[in-house]
Amino acid sequence: MIFALIGNQNCGKTTLFNLLTGSNQHVGNFPGVTVEQKSGAVRGMDDCLVVDLPGIYSLRPYSSEEVVTRDFLLNSKPDAIINIIDATNIERSLYLSLQLMEMHIPMVLVLNMMDEVIGNGGSIDIKLLSQKLGIPVAPISAANNTGIDQMLETVIDTAQKRIYPSVTDFCEPGPVHRCIHAVALQVEDHAAREGMPARFAATKVIENDTDIVKRLALNQNELELIEHSAAEMEQECGMDRNAAMADMRYNFIEQACRDTVIRVGESKEFQRSLRIDRVLTGRYTALPIFLGVMLLIFWLTFGLIGGTLADWLAVGIDMLTAFIDRGLTNYGINPVVHSMIIDGICTGVGSVLSFLPLIVVLFFFLSILEDTGYMARVAFFMDKPMRKIGLSGRSIAPMIIGFGCSVPAIMASRTLSSRRDRIVTILLIPYMSCSAKIPVYAIFAAAFCPDYAAIVMMILYVSGILLGIIAALLLKKLGAKEVTVPFIMELPNYRMPSSKSVLLLMWSKAKDFLERAFTVIFVATLIIWFLQTFDLHLNVAIAGDSILARIGRWLVPLFTPLGFGDWRIVTSLIAGFTAKEALVSTMGVLLGTGMADLPAALSSLFTPLSAASMLVFTLLYTPCVATIAVIRQELGTRRAAIGVVIMQCGVAWVMAWLVYHIGGLL
């Protein structure tokens, strides 16, 4: 049996999904869209699958998440819907429930956070509410893990007995009632052919859901009759059709809640949240506190905790590599095979694993911020400035993380609810200068302006941010003709994060990264090793005669206009594709010098102007192979990942050319 788990954002849906499935989770994308799909078998019941659908507020197809949810219900025909709602805000939450009931699928209404309702002196008559809605109702507290077993029994019983919602007509006799019934008669045969309930089809057609209208294949005469009915309803109601439909649903909800819900004034949790918000979302305090929180997370992730764990892991990998190296040497294995295992495979595995502590630690903190309700506040006060460049407030966190490492930053973009925001944010993250580029900046600063190294670094970081803003404005301009999606945001009460949810998210992201990104990074590292090791005749290459060096020589004319037309520089840039730190080490090997003497060697290879051009190119050219692998994973196509590489290299070439030639004129 397949159960569809549906609810608003911040209603405890993820917590319930984790309780039901434990670690039996699979993460992927819905076919054709970059919307995350999570599914998992119910613990102890391998024949029961729960699909966690995106958090939405309505089935109106404003966003890709709403389209995904609607199409999943229509096409996959789940055995039951588990509709989880926030019992402390029941009126708002029931709006989606009524739309789901129209789809004529067995359904259980799950009232979450009942502990807060009772704790604040309120109550809900579960039996009467079930009668009024015509569906089973199950009270739970996902945070406290209470009522889950009874709820699951109700869901399974509802699915097995095919208990459909007995109430689907929510309106009193009047213009809305007449319109829905008239349209339902018009579309009944078309809806039956598509396996769609007539009432659901009627409401979607009245609300101008173009996808449903197209799917029903209505003829022009039928469309004109439907339009006449809708126009007549609007005239009698004195409001447009969408407002009339919403008013009909809310009138039903108000009546049902009036008879079943006893609520008190503002809850303790709400009052506490208001006091905290006076500081965390204040006009003058919100941004400084957010920057402080992100700097703390940044320091803990890339320094104290994540950096330390990464260093320990690197030591362990080095020890294991050295052990394998000694074993292969003692065995007397062929030198080429030896090089492939040590320089290719071990290096590839090491480059993947080195990101793992950063990803785990970062998502630990992000999950805490999300579960407590703070990330919703960040989206609230950052939305206005971010909208000016065509993004939502939620985009700020992944972009800031990009200054540490682009890999977890791009993975963090999955917290964005809009597909467009997610794509644009992913495209902008490479403009944020990641920590792997610091060795390159440091070496060049030491070679050409040792007294002003900090200023050079600051100029590069600020330049990346400014170019990212310009790119965002261009993308906004290109997408100006798109229909503006209404931005719905909820500020939930502050709550203690669920330790289980936090740990499961860490495990999910770690496993997801290793499974999906590992193969791409591993193969790319082996390819670079092969190109560095062999010449064109597939003999082991001497220095400067490898296939990679030949490719570097072929590409020299492309880089000569930028001021660094030397094959050793170009070869180092290619090696930097595996990891930006490799650019410095490769340059040292090709120049025949150690790290200590590299700044002096660079002084003979570059002029100050060509060095500035090189730094700008390094700032902007293609992200490392790990980042490209994750971009491929998030955007869903190889073509998109290649497009990002080409775009970044193109922008880098143009900006480096401008720096070199305008600098020459000055």
- State the helical fraction: 55-70%
Ends: how far apart?
72 Å
Shape: elongated
Mean pLDDT: 82
Instruction: Give the count of helical stretches.
Output: 30
What report would you give on this structure?
By secondary structure, the protein is α/β, with parallel strands linked by helices. Among the domains are: 2-160, P-loop containing nucleotide triphosphate hydrolases (Rossmann fold), CATH 3.40.50.300; 175-262, Helix Hairpins (Orthogonal Bundle), CATH 1.10.287.1770; 415-471 and 516-666, no CATH class. It is built from 30 helices and nine strands. It has helices at residues 13-21, 64-76, 90-101, 114-119, 126-133, 148-160, 175-193, 198-206, 210-216, 220-237, 241-260, 268-280, 286-304, 306-331, 335-353, 356-372, 374-387, 396-401, 406-412, 419-428, 438-448, 453-478, 499-533, 547-559, 567-575, 581-591, 598-605, 608-620, 625-635, 638-665, and strands spanning 2-7, 25-29, 36-42, 45-52, 80-86, 107-112, 123-124, 137-139, 261-262. The strands form two sheets. The protein has a seven-stranded mixed beta sheet with strand order 2-3-4-1-5-6-8, with helices on both faces. Strands 7-9 form a two-stranded antiparallel sheet. α14 (306-331) packs antiparallel against α15 (335-353), α19 (406-412) runs parallel beside α29 (625-635) and α28 packs antiparallel against α30. The longest helix has 35 residues, at 499-533. It is elongated and about 90 Å long. The N and C termini lie far apart (72 Å).
